[in-house]
Amino acid sequence: MAVSLFDVIGPVMIGPSSSHTAGAARLGNMARRICGHEFQKVEFLLHGSFARTGKGHGTEKALLGGVLGFKASDERIRDSFALAEQQGLMFSFAEIDLGEQHPNSVKIILHDGETICSIIGSSIGGGKILISEIDGMMLEFSGEYPTIITRHHDEPGVVARVSAILSLYGINIAFLKVFRQYRAGEASMVIETDQQVDQEVLIQLEAINGIDRVIFIDVEV
Fold this sequence. Notes:
By secondary structure, this protein is an alpha+beta fold. It contains seven helices and ten strands.
């Protein structure tokens, strides 16, 4: 198995732990990008070792810094509490039991008066993350590829129609997973691609009968 230099030396980051700081910052940043709206309040519900040891590792500052849009290497993470207060962003931290989730996990809830969206994600080591839930829908993706997420009705033909549009625009699917709560109910599709996805493609996908919502998450640069 090939091992990259990144795997050996770890990510460039502020803080002592790739799991508790770099991964936490990425989780916060991912929540910001998934929700895609202005927000005035954020709740962090910390699970496992994030709750028990996160304060000493700077996890709370990293999560909040990520929500503010900072990368793991951004020195402003150290001052994220003060910077959030300057921007008028309310924030809170509490413990939660997320069951069988990875020990370094968090539920992040963003508000603009009402709840905008929520995610559950885990920092799985070396600065890498895994998102396992968006707005109550179970799914799974890493954020390592440009990612399209659909919320759709579980019915024949939806996957084929989505694949056809991506093929038409020359977009190769690296990974595709479909998640559903029950047959013929609400479902979600996660499509990780080898190419960037233009807004025109997303508009075409949103127009497909049976699709209620399309989220696109680009890779971090």
